[in-house]
Amino acid sequence: MPRNLGARVVKQLCRDLENKVYHVFFDNYFNCVHLLEDHKQSQIYGYGTVNSTRRNKPTFLTDKQMKRRNFNYFVSDSGLLAVKWKDKKSVHLLSNYHNPQHWPSEQKK
Predict the structure, then answer these.
(1) Is 108 domain-assigned?
(2) Three-state secondary structure call for residue 38
(3) Where does the record place the PiggyBac transposable element-derived protein domain (predicted)?
(4) Separation of CA 34 from chain center
(5) Is residue 31 domain-resident?
(6) Buried b (16+ CB within 10 A) or exposed e, 42-70
(7) Host domain of residue 64
């Protein structure tokens, strides 16, 4: 399988959306750090799950260190938000438009 195929497909499909302030949602096959950085410069905002083994992500707390319904996040210098949410299993998210200051520290049922 070619390297970065998912990111290349998304860039091709979003070509006509550049500088028009759109929001695009991805699943873990397509989402990656360099795609969201490129899209942010083009005013295309994206959010979605990301594979936990994807490159260029920060090092999160381990599953054993996190309690259920807690999360750990990082914000890059370029404004990307990387989140690890722990429930029964861990979910990793990447976004180039969410502000972590608006997130509660823990969700309640």
Answers:
(1) no
(2) helix
(3) 6-101
(4) 10
(5) yes
(6) bebbbbbbbeeeeeebeebeeeeebeeee
(7) 5-100
